Amino acid sequence: MLNFIQQLINGLSLGAIYALIALGYTMVYGIIKLINFAHGDIMMVGAYVGFFSITLLGTNVWVAMLFAMLTCAVLGIIIEKVAYKPLRNSTRIAALITAIGVSFFLEYIMVFLLGATQRVYPADAFPTQTYHFSGLLMTNKDIFVIASAVFLMIILQLFIKKTRTGKAMRAVSLDQDAASLMGINVNHIISVTFAIGSALAAAAGVMYGVFYGTINPLMGMVPGIKAFVAAVLGGIGIIPGAMAGGFLLGILETMVSGYGNSLFRDAAAYGVLILILLIKPTGLFGEKSGEKI
Amino acid sequence: MNNILEINHLTKTFGGLNAVSDVNMYIEKGELVGLIGPNGAGKTTVFNLITGVYRPNEGSILFDGKSIGGLSPHRICREGIARTFQNIRLFKNLTALDNVKIAFHKEVNYSLLSAVFRTNRFYQGEDQIEQKALELLEIFQLGDKRNELASNLPYGEQRRLEIARALATDPKLLILDEPAAGMNPQETNALTELIHWVRGQFNLSVLLIEHDMSLVMGLCERLYVLNYGQILASGLPEEIRNNPKVIEAYLGEEVTKVVSGS
Amino acid sequence: MKKSFKRKAISLLTTALLLGSLAGCGNGETSTEDGGTNTATSGETIKIGLNMELSGDTASYGSNARDGAMLAINELNAAGGVLGMQIEPIERDNKSDAAEAATLSAALIGEEIAVQVGPLTSGCVNASIPVLSEAGIPIVAPAATAANITVDPDTNEVRPYVFRVCFIDPFQGTLMAQFALDSGYTTAAIYKDTSSDYSQGLAESFKTTFEAGGGTIVAEEGFTSGDRDFRATLNKIKGTNPEFLYVPGYYQEVAPLIKQAREAGITIPMGGGDGWDSPDTLSVAGADALNNCFFTNHYSSEDADEKVVAFVTAYKAAYNDKTPDAFAALGYDAIMAVASAIESAGSADPQAITDALASLTDFEGVTGTMTMDEQHNPIKAGVIIEYVDGAQVMNTRIEP
Amino acid sequence: MELLKRNPAALFLKILILAGIFSAIQYMISFKILSTYYQMTLTTLCLNIILAVSLNLINGFTGQLSLGHAGFMSIGAYVSVVFTQNLDAPFLLALFMACLGAALAGLVIGIPTLRLRGDYLAIATLGFGEIIRIILYNIEAVGGAAGITGIPKLTTWPWLFGSVVLTILVINNLTNSSYGRAIVSIREDEVASELMGINIVNYKILAFIVGAMFAGLAGGLYAHFFYIIKPNTFGFMKSFDVLVMVVLGGLGSTSGAVIAAIFVTILSTVLQSFPELRMVLYAMVLIIVMIFRPQGLMGNKELSFKILRRKRGEAKK
Questions:
Q1: Is D285 on the interface with A (CB under 8 A)?
Q2: Domain spanning B1-80+171-262: which CATH class is it, in words?
Q3: Is the pLDDT of residue D312 over 50?
Q4: How far apart (Å, rounded) are the C-alpha atoms in residues C332 and C324?
Q5: With a threshold of 0.90, does the pTM exceed it?
Q6: ipTM score
Q7: Where are the domains of chain C?
Q8: Which residue in the set D3, D192, D194 is minimally distant from B85, CB to CB?
Q9: Which other chains touch chain A, taking contact as 3+ CB pairs less than 8 Å apart?
Q10: Which of A38, B18, B209, C82 has a Cα at 20 to 30 A from C313?
Q11: Local structure of residue C35 (DSSP, 8 states)
């Protein structure tokens, strides 16, 4: 039982990283209905910006995170304007292929500029502290990522439900044409969405670096796909769903490794994706909506 | 059995809202029926229910005596219902001829292997389809446009091509969603004649949604009026024209339009 | 219409500018590539094909080995070359792809190379062998540790043109298992990288030796390269109460793994192979976590041996203060072994090099002194290195 | 035979050209004019053509984004090797089983996921490819991560040539039939297509199976040429390479896919020494082509004598 709770904690903190990335994924998908394959790679760029901010500028981890978020917000806007916007009225397959192109572009431009070797995140940027409660084990980093995932999810949810921009986002995600008729500047709203989504990815990137100690140009690929699985699991386009999906996926992977066969952990994650797509493609929190004809 | 289509208690809800509720309709064989109503009344939803795009929550749809409610669209098409779309949905990057050929799909009489190995049967089948498709294009005066991409055709011709494509599926019931939208009066007149002629020639029943009242009144033998997802009235065109409820429903819309400044 | 064209034109321009700036950076970065050839004076050169993994998932092994090899070539050329001839490296990227590696070997044969150094991974080496052997060109694999590289597994015959400068998987696994048994441990767990044949090979030989010596393997778990979170499996392993944990993997995964193991309260000794060796292991896992950790290696970059010190200094000077890992050292040694073979053969003819490589004796490399055995595997010392408060300390040196 | 009557001159010409290409290369191989390197590049080229043409059926003609082509290829490779190495089956049977195995996998993944919208399919096929790889890692019988080595070299030029011709022929004949038009109509407008009586799920699955089948063929040929197969060979990167070819050549143009496969194979050889740049360039090709010509360079046009003639006619006007 104790071991089970320990595994649950492990699962939650792994899931928190997925959740953070999934939040941005789900926002972008919600608004332009595009799987932004590059999202995981924006996280990677964020991790690098944080890394250089700490090592070259000597900032602390919080300033580094802020830097990373700002840089990636701008990067997100640029990516949208350059690569996605011209394709807004194209076929879905064209947009998807572009997204894959952007993803590879970010990965290999970083390999080209910085080399494929990994970088070590300075360990003293965020010293680990370990807490024991009656046989259970938790580090300050666990608490930090879980808390940030929940905190950011709540902020984001409030932002979307309460603010003017948030409401405009919802309107755009429901019907772009109608929203623009209502006087909403659709381009502006899409830019804001990309900025927020990318900033969240950057935050996740810095946390990833702090948490696991190393970063490399291809680090975004797998977490990116996993985060997408998390977003689908929770119901894509739904903010609390992304977080729940992230945590669920983290726990699932932990349980497969901890009680099943660690060799098939990733297979289980993709298996769940295919399963959820079959049984309830709209995800756990999603509602069905028909296509307009 | 004199009715080609019979709809009973048809209901469809979206997220708790009734888009269509308790609709009852029938169409007799060979009849030309219109479905009218203000914007957002649920007309296209009824069409989508009949053609299987949506599944009804309640109610039955009988086509030629057979229940088709809940069948998938391609099955319903094979039963003999064909349609056009409010905002034209041609296969834009294909030629006019290919658009029609695709709709002849259920007449393909050669197997996949025949196609791969190019047997004689394949060539015969293709020739037949090509010939039929060309005939149909000629009927709709599109013969010389056969190799044009659908997206390059002028608006009116796209509408005609869509009807031709629908007829290629050999329907018993043709469903037209605002066929005259965006046409000038001259074109509308030609269309009216065309629909009349097509019905006789192909031995069809026709159900159409239309906003253009002159077309509806001149063409349809019977009308249904839909408002807020419910049948408000039905009857002969003259009866509908003078029905106070209908006038109110339409007037209401006009008034809102004026108020909202559109 | 016009407007959308303008928008597209702008985005094209932006991308073009990006590409332009990219190409600009590229010139500066890749200048090391042909650094070795510029001192060539005599018309005759010895062409060495470098068939390496420079992109794809094992790109970091290939680029480090390439750097080590280029350093060796530059040193040799600066010292007047081999037999008075300059060495001309022909560098090719096999994209970590076996088919590509084979194709490149064929291309290198066309360029009349005397010998091929690389690829790094056993799979790519295996794919290269048939082409090169047919043409009678020797291949020196710096780091292909799979047992079946130099010997044909079907016929059990030694492949005449295939050599390597590293010890083989079974050697490392056996070494560590023996070490664990000697230390008095009777139960062990294995946590291996299932996506790497290297890791699987080490795990297998560890298991065989350990069980043959009377020990029990209580758990065998796996991760895949790229993983960073190992806590769930570590907790599971912890539950099986092993006395020793064998983690044959590469430092990218092993370092966070060790750290997480210690955080999860796994205090038992842990062991691994040469894949552990990197300064990153220390900086990621931390000195405390690494106490009571041991790994088998070809060489240690912190070794006080003067050959090693000279190599590390030269490497750091050449590559932005980067510390050479085992791949870099093995790449360097592969070139040096080839050079030594050419000198002793007195000829750069492929067949002469092959014969000289087969009888290579007491060649002093950075990774140890080696003598080629009849199976074309170097007989060389292996070391077990222990981490003591962050420092690599030679625990045991096992002479051949 | 109708086939002979239709346009005997063109048919004769085509056969003549093919026979010419075949014998010219066979001559060069037999008399060792073509070095091993060029033979290997030629093999890669042929495999790329098969992969690009078959993926184009799924991505280009049907409009469904599949990112799991390398997964199907790996199934073909492993199945064929099991047949030749462990069961001593003749090569033809092994290749046939490779196709069958991959087609079966296409069916298994196709039935559930093709009911979904396009973007889910992309992710599902990606996950599917990964699952295959993970499973292969963990099957000791096929060598785990190390894969299988020492595969007999059975893939020769006649096999390659025959396979390329077969692939192009089958896919071309399929797409130029009613079945092919049905498939294309799905890409153009799924809803309209279904309302015209086309069972879109069936046709998507058909395209998927046929595409997977030829990927399996490519896998079998690959395994018996390059001596070794391992799970990592068939990663996402391989699928990505093929996708670049399809996009470049035109989504829905078989001749475009062939041309692009040739072009990309040569380009990748030229860029050998600039590995990172190659990937950056590939990525930019995807982005730029999609922005300026979302239908791909050739669009859905086929290169044929007819087009050439028409072009000349236009120029005269």
A1: yes
A2: alpha beta
A3: no
A4: 10
A5: no
A6: 0.84
A7: 3-167+301-381, 169-297
A8: D192
A9: B, C, D
A10: C82
A11: T
